[in-house]
User: Fold this.
Amino acid sequence: MKKTTKQQGFTLIELMIVVAVIGVLAAVALPQYQNYVAKSELSSALATLSGLKTNVETFTLENGEFPADTQSAAVGIPAASMGNIELAQSSASSASGTITYNFVAGLVSPDLSSHGIRLVRSDEGQWTCVTDSGITENLRPKNCKNDY
Assistant:
């Protein structure tokens, strides 16, 4: 009497179908993940800049002018892990100016490389968030304009 054994395992076709499904899922998920990373890096930079507003306001009220980049130590500019932070007066002896976070290529996602986000202070003390033209609308924080 001959004993029949049932084959166990997957066929080549079944394995190819699984690989194709995984490939399609990866092709859809990877761009979404890259957008998520870029958005979180941009939000982190905006949070860093927003934290500096109080120090800049204090300096401006005490000295009557927006701090220049050479006075960044007086304002307490932290070391930025994704780029560098710069201060700029709009004009000499002016209460208006900008705090800019410039992203450095290689430290951030490619969508943000060599771009920046800034907070702009008017003479009246109003703050506005502005991103440069290289940052797409889907990455930009909701209350930021795309101006410089």
Q: What stands out?
A: The chain has one domain: 12-146.
